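Retro notes (design track)

What went well: tokenization of the new backbones is finally stable.
What didn't: we kept losing track of which sequence belonged to which structure.
Fix going forward: every design gets posted as structure first, then sequence, in one message. First example under the new rule, 197 residues:
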């Protein structure tokens, strides 16, 4: 029995591609949904033969309209999607999607959370001068890059690094750990401990 996965992406879609190409069994990427008609992920979906769809996210820039988020949730539930993977979705998820998929929305973030949440995490870490950067797969709650951590991978910062060379090495690790975390979830093996704040 397959577990249908929806990937939600706004940008280039390299993590989407990694989830399609990687071993996520018994999970299988069923659809790409995007809030951006220009998303590179749409082109990748066509190349990979994965169904893809743009859906209007509402009039806001960094979150969904409530009604629109309800429509996204209804659409995903209607398809029988059981796991939602955010992969560079540039919007906060609030009530309707969280209610529709409790404990079933995952995100990949390019830092070792809880350090450096939010935008340009790689740049934040680089500018801070950390010696070890990395990436995190976590379940999504109502916050920005908060929620129980599933997997993390450290990436050493080299003396020769620029922000971009570091980000490129982190991205490679993202591609590896995202499918590992998705596979673990789909096999009922995603273990996490919730930090109470
Ligand atoms: C990745 O760095 C991911 O960690 C962050 O957004 C970026 C998306 O890249 N959430 P891509 O579209 O998957 O190439």
């Amino acid at each position: 029995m397959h577990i249908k996965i929806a990937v939600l992406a706004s940008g280039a879609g390299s993590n989407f591609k990694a989830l399609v190409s990687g071993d996520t069994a018994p999970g299988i990427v069923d659809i790409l949904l995007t809030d951006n008609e220009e998303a590179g992920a749409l082109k990748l979906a066509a190349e990979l033969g994965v169904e893809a769809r743009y859906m209007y996210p509402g009039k806001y820039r960094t979150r969904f309209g409530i009604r629109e988020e309800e429509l996204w949730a209804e659409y995903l539930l209607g398809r029988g999607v059981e796991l939602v993977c955010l992969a560079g979705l540039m919007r906060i998820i609030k009530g309707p999607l969280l209610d529709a998929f409790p404990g079933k929305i995952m995100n990949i973030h390019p830092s070792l959370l809880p350090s450096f949440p939010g935008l340009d995490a790689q740049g934040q870490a680089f500018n801070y001068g950390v010696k070890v950067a990395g990436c995190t797969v976590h379940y999504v709650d109502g916050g920005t890059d908060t929620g129980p951590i599933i997997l993390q991978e450290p990436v050493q910062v080299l003396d020769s690094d620029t922000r971009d060379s570091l980000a490129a090495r982190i991205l490679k690790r993202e591609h590896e750990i995202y499918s590992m975390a998705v596979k673990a979830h789909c096999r009922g093996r995603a273990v996490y401990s919730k930090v109470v704040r």
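Added context from the reviewer: The chain has a mean pLDDT of 95.
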